[in-house]
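Annual report, structural modelling task.

Input specification for the S-adenosylmethionine complex:
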Amino acid sequence: MDIDCEVDRSTQHALLQRVYRHTGIAMPERKWTLLQGRLRRRLQALSLESYQDYLGVLENRPDELSHFINLVTTNETSFFRTPRIWDYLWQVYLPHWHAAHPGGTLQIWSAAASTGEEAYSLAMLCEEYRERHPGFRYRILATDIATDVLQVGQRGRYGGRNVEGLRKSRPAMLEKYFCATDGEAEVLPALRSNISFREHHLHKRMEGGVRVDLALLRNVLIYFDEEGQQVVLENVRRAMVNDGVLIIGESESLGRFKTGFEFEQPLIYRNRTGHARGP
Ligand SMILES: C[S@@+](CC[C@H](N)C(=O)[O-])C[C@H]1O[C@@H](n2cnc3c(N)ncnc32)[C@H](O)[C@@H]1O
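The model returned the following structure:
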């Protein structure tokens, strides 16, 4: 079935607005071609002839929303993305945290975790640290608004250029924490058992009294407008302990926002107004 590619301005506007309403992602009108391309496959799968018809589906079938969100989000990620962050965590953060919290469990949040490479990179680093400091314990919460990427993370099987990247940058990690399954690299259960994957919209408050010591909020703020970024930063801050560390992405900055985060070094901030640590 042919899809009508002539889309009137009001339908374009309504779909771009839908993206904003459901994800907080601000897509200006010049992004219409991108959105159109991403939704095309879905229209084909539903045998729809026009984007106007798809708007009707979104209106009338609540279960369509997760498909929509999966399609409109950009999920690019990789293992050990931005090397200097991992150097900081290994050389500075983990030793300091462990010395300050003997017997404690380090709570980490990979917010906007996408397919899980960031969470597994954190787990590999923590495992290496634990090998050298047997009393050390950690838990990782990996969240994202898109459910399809969370399923990939939960499954823990990777192939293609992300595995090739890991093979080049840290071959020993690939060897130690993955096994080969059907031509893919599968995370070993011991590593996976330290991570929980959960659906979460960053524009909403984290429920369940979560208080993390370390939050990675990387390469997601860029998709939100200033108001949205402010809301997300406050939500993340509220889910962190006082003195907790926030790490953002390379093309992001908190400079123009009024937050409780204090600059520590590029990409790294400290929460100075949060909650005391629990037992
Ligand atoms: C480019 S990826 C970044 C992945 C990882 N943090 C990294 O830096 O490699 C952005 C992720 O943010 C997620 N995302 C977008 N809007 C979100 C929202 N409102 N709440 C939670 N996650 C969101 C997307 O689904 C996507 O997986």
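The chain has eleven helices and ten strands.
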